[in-house]
Amino acid sequence: MREIDYDLIVERTAELCEKAATRLPDDVKTAIKIGKGGETSPLGAAILADCLKNAEIAETTGCPICQDTGFAVFFIEMGVDARVAGGILEDALTEGTALGYERGFLRKSIVRDPIFNRENTGDNTPPVIHLTLVPGDKLRVTLAPKGGGSENMSAIAMLKPSQGRAGVVDFVVDTVVRAGGNPCPPVVVGVGVGGTFEKCAILAKKALLREIGSRNPNEEYAALETEILERINRSGIGPQGLGGRNTALAAHIENHPCHIASLPVAVNLNCHAARHAVREI
Amino acid sequence: MGFEIETKVWYCYVWLVMHATLAANGGISYKVRNRIMPSRRTIELNLPMSEEAVVALRIGDMVLLNGVVHTARDAAHKRWCEILESEGELPLDLVGGAVYFAGPAPAKPGRPIGSVGPTTSYRMDDYSPLVIERTGIRAMIGKGNRSPEVVEAMMKHKCVYLAAGGGLGALLADRVVSAEVVQYADLGPEAVRRLVVRDFPAIVAIDCHGGNLYESGPARYKLH
After folding, report:
1. Range of the domain at B104
2. Which one is catalytic: B77, B157, B209, B224?
3. Smallest Cα–Cα separation from A35: which of A22, A26, A44, A23?
4. Which residues of A are less than 8 Å from B174 in CB distance?
5. B77 catalytic, yes or no?
6. Quick check: A109 contacting B, CB < 8 Å?
7. What CATH number is attached to the domain comprising B103?
């Protein structure tokens, strides 16, 4: 059994928070560059150029890409042959989040209670943690800081099985089109299909972590991704919702078996600042 | 007298016409002569602004804001409206001013402000008509479309809605000269801040004549 020091996890988590907020992943930059080349709206192309310039400023000055440095959402893969020494994993991730957001001058965006006490917790905790046990003795921490603007435009539907493929495509496209300029397009569209209500939503969020340009390994789902992306980009919404070709940079679908009665579909949107960072400990 | 040349530089959505003078002693001086946008205008707007300045704006105009803007988002708007309803006016002079829907990241040492892009504006839709009516603001800065009620109040009281670059908070922070909390420090990032901005870029997204770029823009680029 490998022991992983609690304090090491705190430090690595803090570093991830700082990195994710200030460095736009290369796949996102590449997707914006490609999108800019095909943008027919001069204003849209100028906005995409500014997205790249903004990423460059963030990288060189350490100023966050976006002031909304998000809800800290962790996907953790914990090797079954590893254990945390000196504390529990959830506490380490929480402490690391507070440290990273303070040290990195990141915005604290979490309130204590959604209805009765909207007081800022002051350190951007608690984070949201999704834990999976995997073979081996490593701890793999993936952080996806999630901005509120695009999260608010997300949606879930429990479709009838009879609605099938077309029902899924329509729901996803409608969700993105209805969101308009609100989620800071061009967006990354994460789609979960199948599972239960909550499984479907988690799949949609997981889909946002996939590298842009990657395809669902199942050919039918890969074709669905292509169709959804094409339909979204025909909408004309464009960068910042002010018109153009680039409404989405990618559409990723994650699928799962589901109940005989169900066809759940969830859409989780990410803004063009599709931030995420990974660290193996 | 030396040699003079004019050249165009693409910068921040617009062409800058640079007028350079090469003096006889070898020194070079240059100044920005004009800013032009293909089929668009770029307008320098000084804040506070007049009703006439608002009326002259049309959707698609690029503006560069200079002067004071106040940040306020959900929680501050809620408090503002409670005060407006109970007392009729705010203890803050916003006449002719601009409200920026934003909650910045903390400033690093030596910087006036951290990342400071706009937040999504529709969440302020329930509050904006009253704020427009009672405070005399001439501009709102945010991102995303507004409700018919907000547009109606804008047309009636001559107010413009400007779209700033969503997710471009690092770039926009460079256009902020100074920032200070003037209200509701307890709200942290949601406190009201008085920003002094220089050449802060935005796009006229909804004008006071009912023009709406969130509708006409996508309609123009939609493929059937």
Report:
1. 40-219
2. B77
3. A44
4. 57
5. yes
6. yes
7. 3.20.130.10
Question: Is residue B204 a part of any domain in this protein?
Answer: yes
Structural domains of chain A in order of their starting residue, each with its CATH number: 2-20+65-145 (no CATH), 148-273 (3.30.1330)
On whether residue B209 sits in a domain, the answer given is: yes
Nearest-by-CA chain B residue for A237: B218
ipTM score of the complex? 0.95
Within-domain flag for B25: no
Structure tokens at A73: 């959402």
Amino acid at B54: V
Residues of A in contact with B166 (CB under 8 A): 149, 181, 184, 240, 271
Closest chain B C-alpha to A86 CA, distance in angstroms: 32
Interface check for B220 against chain A (CB to CB < 8 A): the answer is yes
The per-residue pLDDT string of chain B (224 residues; one tens digit each, 9 = 90 and over) reads 455 555 555 544 444 445 555 555 556 555 544 433 334 688 999 999 999 999 999 999 999 999 999 999 999 999 999 999 999 999 999 999 999 999 999 999 999 999 999 999 999 999 999 999 999 999 999 999 999 999 999 999 999 999 999 999 999 999 999 999 999 999 999 999 999 999 999 999 999 999 999 999 999 999 98
User: How close B213 comes to chain A (CA, Å)?
Assistant: 6
Q: What is the pTM of this model?
A: 0.90
Number of domains in chain B: 1
Instruction: State which residue of chain A sits closest to B143, comparing Cα positions.
Output: A182
Sheet containing A128-134, strands listed edge to edge, beginning at the edge strand earlier in sequence = A128-134, A71-79, A139-146, A277-280
Residue with tokens 């796949």: A27
Distances (CA, A) of A108 to A9, A120, A164, B35: 21, 7, 41, 38
Q: Is A38 on the interface with B (CB under 8 A)?
A: no
From the list B29, B42, B32, the residue with the least C-alpha distance to B9 is B32
